[in-house]
Design a protein that fits this description.
Blueprint lengths: L20 H8 L9 H21 L1 H4 L4 E5 L5 E3 H17 L2 E6 L6 E2 L7 E9 L10 E9 L10 H4 L6 E9 L3 E6 L4 E7 L4 E6 L10 E3 L10 H12 L3 E2 L5 H11 L2 E4 L10 E2 H14 L3 E3 L16 E2 L1 E4 L1 H11 L9
Parallel strand pairs: 3-5, 11-12, 11-13
Antiparallel strand pairs: 1-2, 3-4, 5-6, 6-7, 7-8, 8-9, 9-10, 13-17, 14-16, 15-17
Helix pairs in contact: 2-4, 6-9
């Protein structure tokens, strides 16, 4: 019997489909602090829920699950039907996965205790960011942070397990539901992006070792509120316009952040007269994106300090956010620091 060694065939008749998310996670498991498989499984649980939410998002118009749900969340924002569906899907996946002891969600007033005292991780999540854009077919997303609990495994969940600064994250990521669905995440060892192949039901590595341009020519901010911005911020925006930078603002945090991460730019959601503490949530929006930004060589600040250094004091704490290419953030701070007094409403 003759035995022939396998030689990879580069024929264009059968192109390589690439590295799957599952295979990538297994390969990189040794890079995780405290690697023992639980974090790997947790990331797979999130990926599974993402596939289900992606399906629901794509069929929203056909299944009558678009539009408002008829209730408001703790933020005072009107819940959309898909907000509720996504929250259920992610919470259910994390519960069944068995690696998580508690979940903090934008859609729930209180911490969700999963009654799993053996779980080693806490997840903070915005299940569906920008969901009001569903009805007009604009990109939306999911944002998540993963923390390792600080109290002993086996004991009840405590407040100190939840109120950890962003610098304590062991992993963070976002999902962009757009012209293609992408999952981007970091475990503190760089940033990698995966694109969903619907016909195969798999995420494939499409953006390895993502790096943000050090500088850029895009600024993303809701200029409709500019009359209540600080003089310093308005001066910075005037400088951007004088240089003929591109103004790009989708109104969906994940989509705006993703574009600027790839192309170079700055996203700004400052404090205003209406929202003096800012509007974005620290635990499940700003922290995750700041972790990703820094791992990709970008920067994130609240206007006075690094986002990842902020010690949270409340579950749904808000924060201003200046995030993006490092040089653009630094220049914006040079203006904002001079005069950060918000104009009267």
């Amino acid at each position: 019997m003759k035995i022939k060694p396998y030689i990879p065939n580069d024929s264009s008749l059968a192109y390589s489909v690439g590295v799957t998310l599952d295979r990538f996670i297994k390969k990189k498991q040794d890079d995780f602090p405290f690697a023992s498989g639980e974090l790997s499984q947790l990331l797979r649980d999130i990926a599974l829920a993402t596939k289900i939410v992606n399906r629901e998002t794509n069929r929203a118009g056909l299944a009558n699950i678009g539009g408002a749900f008829g209730q408001t969340n703790v933020q005072g924002e009107e819940q959309q039907k898909l907000d509720v569906i996504a929250n259920i899907r992610f919470t259910r996946a994390l519960t069944k996965g068995g690696e998580v002891c508690a979940v903090v969600s934008e859609e729930d007033d209180e911490v969700i205790d999963l009654q799993n005292s053996s779980g080693k991780y806490v997840v903070a999540i915005d299940p569906l960011d920008g969901s009001s854009n569903i009805d007009v077919n604009i990109s939306i997303g999911t944002i998540f942070s993963i923390y390792r609990r600080v109290t002993p495994v086996g004991s009840p969940i405590q407040l100190e397990d939840i109120m950890q600064p962003g610098s304590k994250q062991v992993a963070a990521g976002y999902v962009l539901y757009g012209s293609s669905t992408m999952l981007v995440y970091t475990t503190g060892c760089g940033v990698n992006g995966f694109t969903y192949e619907q016909s195969l039901g798999e995420f494939f590595l499409s953006h390895p070792e993502m790096k943000a341009p050090e500088d850029g020519k895009i600024f993303s901010v809701n200029e409709g509120a500019s009359k209540t911005f600080s003089k310093g911020l308005n001066a910075y925006l005037d400088t951007c316009k004088s240089r003929e930078y591109s103004a790009r603002y989708i109104g969906s945090l994940v989509a705006d952040f993703h574009r600027n991460l790839l192309k170079g730019g700055i996203y700004i959601y400052p404090e205003t007269a209406k929202n003096p503490e800012g509007k974005l949530r620290l635990l499940y929006e700003a922290n995750a994106l700041a972790f990703i930004a820094e791992q990709a060589g970008a920067a994130a600040t609240d206007g006075s300090q690094r986002i990842l250094d902020i010690q949270p004091t409340s579950l749904h704490q808000r924060t201003p956010l200046y995030i993006g290419s490092k040089k653009m953030v630094e220049e914006a701070m040079s203006f904002v620091g001079k005069d950060n007094v918000v104009a009267a409403k």
